[in-house]
Amino acid sequence: MAYQIGMISLGCPKNQVDAEHMLALIDEAGHSIVDYVDGCDVVIINTCGFIDDAKKEAIENILDTVELKNEGLVKKIIVAGCLAQRHKEEIAKEIPEVDAVIGIGADGDILKIIDDVMASDRIIEKFPPQSDLPLDGQRILTTPEHWAYLKIADGCSNRCTYCTIPSIRGDMRSRSMENICDEAKQLAEVGVKELILIAQDTTSYGLDLYGELKLPELLNRLCEIDGIEWIRLLYCYPDKITDELIATIKAQEKVVNYIDLPLQHANDRILKAMNRRGTSEDIRNVIAKLRKALPDVVIRTTFIVGFPGEDDEAFEDLAVFVNEMEFDRLGCFSFSPQEGTPAYDMPDQLEEDVKIRRGEIIMQDQLTIVEDKNNAKIGNTYKTIVEEYDPYTDSYIGRTYMDAPEIDGLVKFTCSDELEVGDFVDVRIFDVDEYDLLGEVEE
């Protein structure tokens, strides 16, 4: 029997790809997929459970859907994803209106779970090993047609002391190179022009499967695929930015000079407490190597403020580091203690208002840095991919190689010709608007 299915996917791009795999299975089985939840037979909520804000967002979505169910607008609710994997007992106990709570490894069984919840009034709980999570198969893309995430591995073996990912998703599992390239070819055939490579730790790709770091070889093979014009790297670890990887980025025109490098801190004592590999000096050396080999490289990073034991001196080290390094893109998060992690029970936990204030200081300094960097772009011309047309201003919105979708800035520009979403054009920058650039297509 065919049902009407709605999907709410929350959290990171890796979770989004999992949802796309489930949607493909649902579609192939003949069910109707809708982009709303009112009137659905089944609503699947694919949750994130990484930090407190993500858990709060997931619970709010579950409760909103429960309210629709109580009003008769939704028949069944399935909670999947990281929050379900981590807090299955609490969800089943505290929100009895939920019809199924399923773990990461159950995504491939979503069709049977849908049938079971429609045929039963009891709550269904299914938690096979995380390693049962399918890493390949068909997807229904929920991104625009011209770009897509390409997940090259799942899980993580790094064991940072603040992170729940290994307990939620298990150890790192790399996909085979052939399998990844086959999917990339399929994406290119349906019009994808930009591949965004993701994993919990992209730079560790291949270590578990081949016994060595294989990201450079993977990039070389992906660059051979016709139709792909940009390849972007997210979630890279500084201790695995090898000379070979840098040389590959430099040699391959399709690999954009953009790297997402979550550093988390810059004080050696805090880095050690986080179980991050390397020192502040090691990080500085990696950044120097990247900038020497790739003068126009854009480095995105993230930091955690308020980690246990972060005294004034440790925070000052971080603030000085941020100002000295002048990152192109930067996100800053307050430490969120997560049950089951070593950092949860560490002494010298900081007050929330101290964390918030420190985050504000970092982001205010970063805004000044970004404004200076953006002003230096005025007069330059950049290859830009068209994201959308704004009929109210008769202008277009796009991205340069410097901007990952959904997290970085945009280019707002005019063009006398009619453009299509996914087109590449050369845009000359004439002004800035905080994090965004303003320009016009060169005629």
Describe the structure.
It is a single chain. Helix content is 35%, strand content 23%. The relative contact order is 0.08. Helix 9 (215-222) runs parallel beside helix 10 (243-251) and helix 13 runs parallel beside helix 14. Strand 15 (381-390) and strand 16 form a beta hairpin. The longest helix has 24 residues, at 352-375. It has helices at 13-28, 52-70, 81-86, 88-94, 110-119, 165-169, 177-189, 207-210, 215-222, 243-251, 268-273, 280-293, 312-325, 352-375, and strands at residues 4-9, 32-34, 42-47, 76-80, 100-102, 124-126, 147-151, 153-154, 173-174, 194-198, 230-233, 255-260, 298-305, 329-334, 381-390, 395-400, 411-414, 424-433, 436-441. The strands form four sheets. Strands 2-1-3-4-5-6 form a six-stranded parallel sheet, with helices on both faces. Strands 7-10-11-12-13-14 form a six-stranded parallel sheet. Strands 15-16-17-19-18 form a five-stranded mixed beta barrel. By secondary structure, it is an alpha/beta fold.
Note the main attributes of this structure.
single chain, 14 helices, 6-stranded parallel beta sheet, globular, 35% helix, alpha/beta, 443 residues
Describe the secondary-structure layout.
Layout: E1 4-9, H1 13-28, E2 32-34, E3 42-47, H2 52-70, E4 76-80, H3 81-86, H4 88-94, E5 100-102, H5 110-119, E6 124-126, E7 147-151, E8 153-154, H6 165-169, E9 173-174, H7 177-189, E10 194-198, H8 207-210, H9 215-222, E11 230-233, H10 243-251, E12 255-260, H11 268-273, H12 280-293, E13 298-305, H13 312-325, E14 329-334, H14 352-375, E15 381-390, E16 395-400, E17 411-414, E18 424-433, E19 436-441
Parallel strand pairs: 1-2, 1-3, 3-4, 4-5, 5-6, 7-10, 10-11, 11-12, 12-13, 13-14, 17-19
Antiparallel strand pairs: 8-9, 15-16, 15-18, 16-17, 18-19
